[in-house]
Design brief:
It holds the Pfam family MMPL. The protein is of the alpha+beta class. Among the domains are: 1-62 and 286-413, Multidrug efflux transporter AcrB transmembrane domain (Multidrug efflux transporter AcrB transmembrane fold, Up-down Bundle), CATH 1.20.1640.10; 816-989, Vaccinia Virus protein VP39 (Rossmann fold). Helices cover 60% and strands 11% of the residues. It has 38 helices and 20 strands. The strands form 4 sheets. A 7-stranded mixed beta sheet has the order 16-15-14-17-18-20-19. Strands 2, 3, 4, 5, 6 and 7 form a 6-stranded antiparallel beta sheet that branches. Helix 15 (348-371) runs antiparallel to helix 28 (707-737) and helix 28 (707-737) runs parallel beside helix 30 (769-806). The longest helix has 38 residues, at 769-806. The radius of gyration is 43 Å and the shape is elongated. The two termini are 56 Å apart.
């Protein structure tokens, strides 16, 4: 694979103009398409979907649960006039100075509104009565009752307020309309309020409440900041000039406080982190442009991912981009590894040979892990999976393509290791018994604790809550009577009629539960706004109740009783007309004409889907009551806290499944790259150990998982996987070549750790709980990952690979462990020979060559006798000499190989450490004692000349394996051919 990137490097090195043109087109195109994508700021996109969740999502999309701002005007003593005067000034100021930020202000009920409501109920009275109400009406039709009500009406007319009450008395002398008006009380949950000077006043006359519906959602922090600043200025000004004081609270205050604190925290922590990182990178690489070069591949990766999402979706969850931006720290590793390796070795060919494979492996495994998010039925997490996967793959490609062009390291004038980071990286951590014991102890403790780490489903604990806002919240909610738990019940249907029908049925249940004391109170339009079928049913009940006989007897009784007090027979004609009226059904728009009902707070009507909302007030949450209400088709309960907990609990279960998918997927990718079970396990094992230790430490420190840090844990998984892959490749390179390259790999990993800890870890100094949570888990996970990789993983490779080679044993493998030494193995010694090359890049080539020539090798081994010294010439990777040394352990072999690469590979086999074999690129000074010469292919002219000089004096046998080599000179030297077959020529010296 590295050869393709090397070709690209040389191509663009020759075609620089074309390279810069393509790069410019990519940046322009990526920026253009990425800027056109639509961001969706909906946290419910994190919610795993399902049949119920889809209905719930549809309900949430069509129902307004936005928090209103509650303004409380308070006085220490009873002072209703001063309170209402303050409220007048406040509403006037808001309407004058902040109209662009306010949708509506509620809490003021003018007299015209009261009359409007009264007349509306009067004109449609049957719709506001139920069977219990007709029992009460029957009682009022008794003669004694009629007499008392007529007398009361007379007294009210004679009182100073008679000019106001006469409008109601002559229309309804028996107060039947008041029975219907009681249903309107069910539109409000709060008790203990009354109307005074058109305002909502508490019963103790110490507080007036106003409700503001902001025009902008809580996510529009810029607009809301200007609104809250203006509101705060108005209230502060009024408070100075008044005996009463105003205060306010709403969810938007928390949203603003969180946005400001996050911005402040990030600016502070990242500015410090970036400054330190800038200095660190410049000092280490001695180039001022390195920080920019470092981030270029990550930026290009992000542009590619967003552009791809734009083409396929057109929109993306802002939450997924936010999390993805943090996870892109993984892609910085690729640039760091290339820069560090290039700094230690400026040969571009060696660079590509060393880093291409681990970087592509790392990006592929990380991308596969992220793509497993597609199995979670959550739109935001699907977006995150695609975004992160495309980003890391693209970043790895651009790292390999761009950095060797733009970074030109200076030739090193000092010995490696003089730099402070190099000295730290050169430490052999796997030899430190204290570190080995510490990691082992943490792992053992973690095994007992990891399964006990809790998951905090309470999103409120991730919010930044300033004390001032919390105090205002508690005080105002107590005044408003909203200290109890509020649950939303949403009736839904394909049209408004269906939704209203469901809501009417729900209303009857709520009424029943209230009477039974199961719920404290409720707010519903179920007794007010009825479906057409329900209206017809109500009108029929009215008509059935008011028979002609009952109407006439009621009329006669009223005329008789009122005449004694001076009323005329026609005084109550409007009431009699009401009893004889033919009532008709009304439409929702007719209800909505009465502005004082605020029906828009309860109803949402959209094409194909409509909702009607009710609220239930519970002193203590009762899941059984809510579950009972939810058994009704077309009704769904939404308790904000419970909903979040259910959502997040479901999300946690999805992540448990996701972890299993990710591990399986990564393991398969590792198997495809390494083609070895043991290497795949040794690379994946540190991730499992890291995870167990991290969870154990979290439990000891009393840190719980939450929605943010459980997602960020994928970041730790990705980084830990990067570290494991690079340690595996460093160990394999040392095993293959004998070169101590581990310090270089450890240096790049340490740079990654430092940059990540400076970036994410600095957030531990943030005041915002969410940032602290993310930072704490990240720091624990990253430090654990690097410690496990540097100590345990490296130690395992030393034990299973490096030290075994020093003891002339092949690297540990399951196939070698399970292999049976049968007669075939004793004959060809295939496992023994190939074990010297297992886990090496050229293993396939060696295996193919050995299997192709093993019969020849076996035949040649028969010509070598005990005690002979054999000189071998040109043997590639050394499998042939290794075979002969194993088949003839009593013979000694000197193997000459002029090719330094082949010599390095042969010299770094376990067998090369044996006493009976020696690989060298230098001919022996004295050939005395060599009785057998094996020539594999035509030697260099100088070597051939030397051999022709020494063979006549020392050789007893000469074995030629190359048909291109002239052999006449051997015959002239009194050698005779004793064997000629399978391209093997054996010459033995004649006596």
């Amino acid at each position: 694979m590295h050869k393709y990137f090397l070709k690209l490097y040389y191509f663009f090195r020759r075609q620089k103009t074309l390279g810069f043109l393509l790069l410019g087109l990519f940046i322009f195109g990526g920026s253009y398409f990425a800027s056109k994508i639509n961001l969706e700021e909906d946290i419910t996109k994190l919610v795993p979907s399902g049949e119920k969740q889809q209905v719930l999502q549809q309900v949430l999309d069509h129902t307004d649960f936005s928090d209103k701002l509650i303004i409380a005007v308070s006085s220490e003593s009873k002072n209703p006039d001063e309170l209402t005067a303050y409220a007048d000034k406040l509403t006037d100021s808001l309407n004058e100075k902040l109209p662009e930020y306010i949708d509506k202000i509620q809490g003021r009920v003018p007299e015209a509104g009261i009359l409007e409501v009264y007349d509306f109920v009067y004109e449609n009275l049957p719709l506001f009565l139920n069977s219990k109400d007709y029992c009460e009406i029957s009682n009022r039709l008794e003669n004694d009752s009629i007499k008392k009500r007529v007398e009361k009406a007379y007294n009210d007319l004679m009182s100073p307020t008679g000019f106001v009450t006469k409008h109601f008395i002559f229309k309804d002398p028996l107060g039947i309309n008041n029975i219907g008006l009681k249903k309107l009380r069910e539109l409000q949950v709060e008790k203990g309020f009354k109307i005074y000077n058109d305002y909502l006043l508490t019963s103790d006359e110490k507080h007036v409440l106003l409700f503001i519906s902001p025009k902008y959602p809580a996510s529009e922090t810029n607009q809301n900041e200007a609104f809250i600043d203006g509101l705060d200025h108005i209230i502060t000004t009024l408070n100075k000039d008044s005996q009463v004081k105003g205060d306010y609270f709403g969810g938007v205050l928390y949203a603003l406080a969180n946005a400001k604190q996050i911005k402040k925290d990030i600016q502070l922590t990242l500015s410090i982190a970036f400054s330190i990182l800038l200095v660190l990178l410049i000092v280490y690489y001695r180039k001022f442009y390195i920080p920019l070069l470092l981030f270029l591949p990550s930026i290009f990766g992000a542009l590619s991912a967003i552009s791809l999402l734009y083409f396929f979706k057109g929109s993306v969850s802002a939450i997924s981009l936010g999390i993805g931006a943090v996870l892109l720290g993984i892609s910085l590793d690729y640039a760091l590894h290339i820069l560090t390796h290039f700094r230690h070795n400026s040969n571009v060919e060696i660079l590509y040979r060393d880093v291409t494979r681990p970087i592509l492996m790392s990006s592929c495994t990380t991308a596969i892990a992220f793509l497993c998010l597609l199995f979670v039925e959550s739109e935001a997490l699907n977006d995150l999976g695609v975004f992160a996967a495309v980003s890391v793959l693209t970043a790895s490609f651009f790292s390999l393509l761009l950095i060797p062009h733009f970074y030109k390291p200076k030739p090193k004038k000092t010995k490696a290791g003089t730099n402070w980071l190099d000295r730290i990286a050169a430490i052999r951590y796997y030899k430190n018994k204290v570190l080995l014991g510490l990691v082992g102890l943490l792992f053992i403790v973690g095994l007992f604790l990891f399964n006990s780490v809790g998951f905090n489903k309470d999103l409120s604990q991730l919010n930044y809550k300033p004390n001032k806002i919390q105090e205002s919240e508690n005080e105002i909610l107590n005044i408003a009577g909203r200290a109890a738990n509020t649950t939303y019940l949403v009736s839904y249907g394909n049209d408004i009629e269906k939704a209203l029908l469901e809501n009417n049925e729900l209303y009857e249940k709520l009424q029943k539960f209230k009477n039974q004391g199961k719920i404290e109170n409720f707010s519903s339009i179920g007794g007010v706004v009825l479906s057409t079928d329900k209206q017809l049913e109500k009108i029929e009940s009215w008509d059935s109740f008011w028979s002609n006989a009952k109407i006439n007897s009621t009329r006669q009784a009223l005329i008789r009783e009122s005449a004694e007090l001076g009323f005329k027979p026609a005084s109550f004609n409007r009431f009699y007309n009401q009893l004889n009226k033919d009532f008709n059904t009304i439409l929702l728009d007719d209800y909505r004409q009465v502005k004082s009902l605020y029906l828009d707070d309860f109803i949402d009507r959209s094409p194909g889907f409509s909702t009607v909302t009710s609220t239930v007030s519970l002193e203590n949450p009762d899941p059984e009551v809510i579950a009972n209400l939810e058994t009704q088709d077309g009704v769904i309960a939404i308790d904000r806290k419970q909903m979040n907990e259910n959502f997040l609990g479901s999300l946690k279960e999805k992540f448990n499944t996701l972890i299993i998918f990710s591990v399986i997927a990564v393991f398969i990718v590792l198997l495809l790259f390494y083609r070895s079970l043991i290497l795949s396990l040794l690379t994946l094992l540190p991730i499992a150990v890291t995870w167990i230790i991290t969870l154990g430490v979290m439990l000891v420190l009393n840190i719980e998982f939450n929605i943010l840090n459980i997602i960020i844990s994928t970041f730790i998984f990705g980084l830990g996987l990067d570290y494991s892959i690079f340690i595996t490749n460093a160990s394999l390179k040392e095993y293959e070549t004998g070169k101590k390259v581990l310090p270089t790999y450890q240096a790049s990993i340490l740079l990654s750790v430092i940059t990540t800890l400076l970036g994410v870890g600095s957030l531990i100094f943030a005041k915002h709980p969410a940032l602290q949570s993310v930072s704490t888990v990240s720091v624990i996970g990253i430090l654990t990952a690097v410690m496990v990789s540097f100590v345990w993983q490296t130690k395992l490779f030393q034990v299973l690979f490096i030290k075994r080679k020093a003891r002339q044993k092949p690297a540990f493998s399951f196939s070698g462990l399970l292999a049976k030494k049968g007669s075939k193995e004793k004959l060809y010694m295939q496992q023994t020979v190939l074990g010297n090359y297992r886990f090496k890049n050229f293993y396939v080539e060696v295996r193919r060559d050995f299997l192709q020539h093993r019969e020849r090798f076996l035949k040649i081994s028969g010509f070598i006798t005990e005690g002979e010294q054999v000189f071998m010439l040109n043997n590639n990777f050394g499998s042939f000499p290794v075979f002969l040394s194993k088949k003839n352990p009593e013979a000694n072999f000197f193997v000459f190989e002029a090719d330094t690469i082949n010599l390095e590979k042969a010299n770094n086999t376990p067998t090369a450490n044996a006493k009976n074999i020696n690989f060298s690129s230098v001919l022996p000074e004295d050939f005395k004692g060599f009785s057998v010469f094996i020539i594999n292919r035509k030697p260099e002219a100088e070597v051939e000349k030397i051999l022709k000089e020494v063979i006549p004096h020392h050789a007893q046998k000469v074995i030629i394996l190359s048909s291109a080599l002239a052999t006449r000179w051997l015959l002239d030297l009194n050698f005779k051919i004793t064997y000629r077959q399978s391209n093997i020529l054996v010459f033995e010296k004649a006596d």
